[in-house]
Predict the 3D structure of the following.
Amino acid sequence: MSTELQIIAIVAEKGGVGKTTLALTLAVAAVHAGRKVAVFDLDPQATAAQWTDRRDHEFPWVVATPATRLDAAIANAKGQGVDFIVIDTPPHAGTDAVEAARRSDLVLVPVEPHLYTLETLPKLGNLLSLAGDTPALFVVCKAAVQGKEGQDAAAYVREQGFEVSPVTLHLRAAHRHAGNVGLTAQEYEPTGKAADESLQLYTYTMQLLTKRGCSHAQAKPAYARA
């Protein structure tokens, strides 16, 4: 098990694209892999924090954290042995998302296969540039199980010059039902398709981090707030 701290930020311009589901899915997958995990919820809606209120398991820790306290929160988590952090940022990507991305080893961007979401890609590209070009991986989420909309969305994102995960998180009821009881799909329905996709995405994300030699110990220093 890795002992180096790794930090992933989840960033999206549009709300409702599966951002918090993606954050919690990765966090729980990391717990199952033996990591000590914390989720920092920067979103004023506090969806992740409310999810943990419905939960009986100790990990992942979920803490509502303002962006101005990120450095202190990261230091505190590291001091308590946390080796994997997921930062769930607010929608309408702005300063908070930039601050989270700057402190991260990898940014995951959930993309819903809908024109309204795809039209936000230029702004997200600008945000990643402001964050110092932290490596980013776009993940198609909430794609219909039938048809090619997920594949078409992935192809479109690649055409814009962004890296896209080969794993799609489809629109499956297990994600919704699990969230209602403080679980994720892999806990609610361990042998289901949603659980399988969640594990595949976590595995691919970890392979990408390893391939790029990403860990917080090697990450660029945080910048001052603009």
Observations:
- Strands lie at 6-10, 37-41, 61-64, 84-88, 106-111, 136-143, 169-170.
- Residues 6-216 form a domain with the Rossmann fold fold (CATH 3.40.50.300).
